[in-house]
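hey so u asked for the seq, here:
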Amino acid sequence: MTTTTPKPGPGPDPAATSGPASAPGPAATSAPAAAAPVHPTDGAWRLVRAELGRRASLKISLAVVALFAVMTAAAPLISALGGWGPEEFDKSAVDPYLGGLPIGPLGGVSAEHWLGVEPVTGRDLFARVVHGAQVSLLIAFAATAIVVLAGTTAGIAAGYFGGRTDTVLSRLMDLTMSFPSLIFMIAMMSVARDVDRILLMTLVIGLFGWPGVARVVRGQTLSLKHREYVDAARVGGSGPWRILARDILPGVAGPVIAYTTLMIPGMIATEAALSYLGVGVRPPTPSWGQMIAESVAYYDTDPMYFLVPSLCLFLTVLAFTLLGDALRDVLDPRGSRT
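ran it, structure tokens below
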């Protein structure tokens, strides 16, 4: 008589499913996460994209910045759409018997003059505002580029090399920040007559803005130069310039980008203030600050002449400020992320 024992047969199956099969389960689920390291820079820009999707105000400000950037780059083409140049006079659009006030409602707004005309001269406000954006934003962008380049270079050099280099550059920062910059700008622009005003304003505004960026970059460089990957690059034989370019500069790029965006509104306002005071761009070259200064005499009889350049200046400064605040929250490690 033969006896069969079926129990030992299925015995290994539960063991195979409970022992060896259960062990690879967590490893299999955790392996993809461990195999996909995220670079810090990629994570920062992913946060920027998430911030763009979360804030409606940030989308609007980015659209306004893009609009004025396009206006700056293509000012002649955009003003040509209105059919008038920034220095063309239209005497038929103003009333000589009312002191040269524009004919028609809202400062002469019509199908021929989309934003109205200037009093007395009859120059088209749309063309003046577009070309004024080109002048104002060109000065602001160029001055900001000078500030960022000089400030980043000085800050990295002071923070990384230290010693006498840090002492000299730090004292130069203190001296520049303590100088009465606005008075010097007014005096310089008043004395220099036969020069390119746009170039001079760019250089003068950029001359006094770099210490703020340099201080931020210097502090960031001091915290980066003792990191493990910097020490490893130094032990591996990399020279100081290679370390600065490949390890230090990418680490300070985030805060620099954030503060750059916040500096542009200040540069725009500085140019507008100098033009308002009469020491900026010379007429007939249009500028927002110059247009606001000229419109003060007509704000009660022709408010559109005052509102149009003032609104453009307000929207540009507000858009860059909102964009800079959002980038600072995300990219600046010392900022608060909302």
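The longest strand covers residues 94-95. The beta strands are 94-95, 101-102.
lmk if thats what u needed
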